[in-house]
Amino acid sequence: MKIYAAALCTFAALASTPASSQQLSPAEQRIVAEVKANSAAALGLLERSVNINSGTMNHAGVREVGALFRKELDQLGFATRWIDMPKEMQRAGHLLATRTGTQGKRVLMLGHLDTVFELDSPVQKWKLNGDRVSGQGVSDMKGGNVVMIEALRALHRTGALDNTNIAVMFTGDEESAGEPKAVSRGDMVALARQSDVALAFEGTVLDQDGRATATVGRRSSSGFELQVTGKQGHSSGIFGERAGYGAVYEAARILDGFRQQVVEPDLTFNPGLILGGTAVSHDEQGSRGTAFGKTNVIANTVTVKGDLRYLDSTQRDRAHARMRAIAADSLPGTSASISFHESYPPMAVTPGNLKVLELFSQASNDAGLGPVAAVPAGLRGAGDIQFAAPHVDSLDGIGATGSGAHSPSEDLELASIERAAIRTAIMLYRLTR
């Protein structure tokens, strides 16, 4: 991890200063011209997609947005199909588009069709605000989806898609991935194993100087469950030899032990739900629970549900070991057990990912759009790319530029669609030569 962190700092320093621009080839200049010529139509495509509600649980809406992008990909010569999920998973499915060729790298491109705004959401749809637009999912991530389509369109119009090997996958449940994830992300993992490079188009984050960045690492999304027991008895006996300390004090000791002793950069753990008393019940599906207890009775049980995020498996293993040790060092009259579950694997910062960023930054710089630096891995949440990253060199966060994701103020800078499409098209052209 220290090696990767050092490499990331080195690349960030290099990317913060202008690199020498290589003149675009005639073919690349034609590709850029095609992106610019279609910019107005691209915004029309974005508007149509944003005006379709596609909250994860609005399966009809997710499929409708999928049909919109499927039509575009069909016109670009891709073979397309809809991948249904088992009915019991209650998810709409995914759109897959492929081109089979023998030229250059095998590229996997990832986007998602769903948003956090469900069918009854009061958040407006498409609304222009000068040089920006707001609306449901405009930044996360329908803008990124349009970037993908427009980059591919420019390549198609110049004949540069011929004989390439490119797969495009739009998932229908990125905001709330279907369980089990071995099924909902099984096709993505299989595609990643057959690819040389994976590119994901979540929004581009600008640094403090307004320069574009990309994501070479993302922390895992996992969780922990702490179960604590104590001796029920009269409250007057608390701290005594016979009664002990009770489950609530033991839970507090353990959690504060985590806070003070499990400390590493980019490692976080959050106890999001605590239930304690003499009778506790927890509704896993609804993420809620009930607790009964009396102030004159020592609590005999506590349940804690928490979130745990880490950069790589080595950091995870250290955290797990330390948390288990803290939980096992029980106060008198108590005992505790801790378990962990994985949700999204980490996207570790690897030399391969940094190399992909270097190629992307060079493409951006050559197009006159400036270099692209790495976002510190600890600043990004979980995303689909993390299922691909363990199997293939990967880069994320190269879509459009917006703000306020997942909120009523979510918006997008309109001009960022063109910029991101130019960067992507040149990168794809170079990868597939």
Automatic annotation (TrEMBL):
One of its GO terms (molecular function) is hydrolase activity. Keywords: Hydrolase, Metal-binding, Signal. Pfam families: M20_dimer, Peptidase_M20. InterPro entries: Bact_exopeptidase_dim_dom (IPR036264), Peptidase_M20 (IPR002933), Peptidase_M20_dimer (IPR011650), Peptidase_M20A (IPR050072). Residues 216-332 form the Peptidase M20 dimerisation domain. Residues 1-21 form the signal peptide. SUPFAM superfamilies: Bacterial exopeptidase dimerisation domain (SSF55031), Zn-dependent exopeptidases (SSF53187). This is M20 family peptidase. PANTHER family: ACETYLORNITHINE DEACETYLASE, ARGE_DAPE-RELATED DEACYLASE.
